[in-house]
Structure formats: C-alpha cells, structure tokens
C-alpha cells in the first residue's frame, strides 16, 4: 500500500501546488506514509516501531492519525518551516500527509 499512498499523494500535491519540484514532492511522498504510523505492519510503523507500538496499543488503525485533527497537528508542528522561508516544503509536507490518509478513504 505504500506505493499507492505515495503515488496518490505526490500526484495530488503536484497538481495542487502546480509544481514538479523533486524536493517538494519527495517531502510529500515521505509525509504520505506518516498516517500509517498507527500500525506496526506498515513500512513507517516498522521503521518507527516504538511510536507505532505505543499508538497501536492505544488507538485503532485509521483512527486519529487518519483525521483532519492529525492533519492540523502536523500543520502546526511543521509551521516553523514556513516561518524560516521553506513554505513550499511546508505545503508539500501538509498536503502529503493529508493526501496520504485521504487515499485510505477509497480502500478497505
């Protein structure tokens, strides 16, 4: 599923921002995987197993990390990127995260 999350997120981020900048789209690709940190079965969950294990015990898959609330938290947490002059990377991050979990709306 990682490949489809990345493809969906990169395509929609590119269309939304009107860019083909590889840095921005690379950030979007990585951010697309972050919502699945709530399960140890995902690639990001295996990579960050202490965090995914903690979340897996306390939440359900496609729960809090797949929400507008989580998108808002990511947006606020990454806001310093925008203040430091990296607004396009910030946009790539928040759109990548959003489209990453939004892609799950269309799958089981």
Tell me, briefly, the overall form. globular
The count of helical stretches stands at 7
- SS strand fraction: under 5%
Low-confidence stretches: none
Averaged pLDDT, please? 88
The number of distinct β-strands equals 0
Walk me through what this model shows.
- 69% of the residues lie in helices and 0% in strands.
- α5 runs antiparallel to α7.
- It contains seven helices and no strands.
- It has 108 residues and is mainly α.
- The chain is globular, with a radius of gyration of 13 Å.
Q: How is this structure best summarized?
A:
This protein is mainly alpha-helical and 108 residues long. It is built from seven helices and no strands.
Note the topology.
Blueprint: H1 2-17, H2 22-33, H3 43-47, H4 49-58, H5 68-77, H6 79-83, H7 87-102
Task: Name a few traits of the molecule.
single chain; 108 residues; mainly alpha; 0% strand
């Amino acid at each position: 599923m990682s490949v489809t999350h990345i493809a969906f997120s990169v395509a929609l981020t590119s269309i939304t921002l009107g860019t083909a900048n590889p840095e921005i789209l690379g950030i979007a690709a990585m951010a697309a995987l972050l919502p699945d940190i709530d399960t140890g079965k995902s690639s990001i969950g295996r990579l960050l197993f202490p965090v995914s294990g903690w979340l897996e015990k306390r939440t359900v898959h496609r729960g809090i990390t797949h929400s507008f609330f989580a998108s808002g938290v990511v947006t606020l947490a990454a806001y310093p990127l925008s203040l430091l002059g990296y607004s396009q990377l910030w946009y790539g991050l928040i759109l990548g995260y959003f489209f990453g979990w939004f892609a799950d709306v269309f799958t089981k």
